[in-house]
Records
---
Amino acid sequence: MCSEDPHHDLQAILAKHSSTPESEPRLKLLLPRIISTFGANKSVKEIMEELEQHSQSADTTVSQWATEALSGIKKGAPFSLVLTQKYFSKVAAARGNHGNELSKLNGVMKSEYRIALRASLRSDFAEGVRAVLVDKDQNPKWNPPSLEEVETSEVEVLFEPLGSQAEELCV
């Protein structure tokens, strides 16, 4: 049964299907390091440097996690990496701030809708599809080609209300 509050509905579903695992989950063990590494207001370059350090850890759980995370990040489009980091920072900063739309599920969904609409129109989306699914050369030509060349102002535009460009998501 759905209510007017999707956050409440989601909490109810999660409570219904939750259980206590028999052992400590890997995520719980890594969570402090994940939060520290991907903390708000860190640049993508700083995150990658920290992951590189963690990949040298004597703790195999930590080194495996860091190596896998770094490998995934290195495959991403520089613009998308900066966008994702900026978005995560905005959501993290909104946590507990009930006046911020990103502190609620509805606000997060609206923001992700705006980002998805605009990001899908960028050349990087088609280039990623070409490199991975069409030509399968795994060699995308990103625009811009490096993190240093990403314009922050171009990233910020993706967060703005849609205006006359398209209808906002109604949730």
---
Amino acid sequence: MLPLEKGKKFGASVSFSTIEIKEYPIIAGDNPAVTMGAPITIDWIPFSDEKCTVDDYEERRPYPRSMVELRMLSTYRMQLLRSLGFTREEVRKSIKAANITRNHRKRTNEITALSRVQENLEIMTRAMLNVTIRRRAKKREKLIMNSYLLNKKVIDDSRSSVTTRDTSGSSSILITNQ
């Protein structure tokens, strides 16, 4: 996007001239969100399409429906599928596919919840072991580390010190940092 020049207003507009409306056939689906009965969905291939202007569409479009109005009873979905020519066996298979998918999702959610519990249990177990049993090992580890660091400091200090003798015969140590 180009920067705006001072004093000039950037005007953008969008307009639509026509709308294309496609109608798709209703078929038996496998959506696991349906809690009872056969789920329905639309097919991939439209059976009709219509073009109209935006103004024509706005004049004749139906009012928007609420979620409650969009819900269909299981008996209505069953009657709808039967009236569209689906056999009882096809509807039964659709119900079975939805139930299988729903159970898979339920199992996944249960496993996910259990994995969180297991992770928290492992964290608590490690914390308790560190407080009780591993306490001695941690102390020993600290002692070893401290003695190592102390020895390293002594060695480093000895490398940076210089011994000099003055004329009186006494010795003195001059420490220099490198």
---
Amino acid sequence: MMACFEAYGDKWWVADTDIDGWSAATHWKNYLQDQNGNWLLAREGICINKSGGHTRAVCDKNYYENSTYPNGAFGQGSYLTWRACLYKSSTNQWNGCSSWTTVLNSN
């Protein structure tokens, strides 16, 4: 499984590299900085590739850019953190997740 974020267009690309009964997914969190400089969790979600092994899928999102003022928390700043995982929707089970990756959301 592999996942990557395309900042221009706020797209998640998720590749399922094995035929193993698990879906490839990315679990993401979007944090916004408020007017006092605190980072707040604004949104959280998953992008699941349900197409099977040896395929890739895309999820199109819309996040505040790091430079947008004011953002949804009335401050300026936006970052994303995510991890790639194997996911089984029938049991809501996560497996083999990568470590978390963090990036400022700017294009």
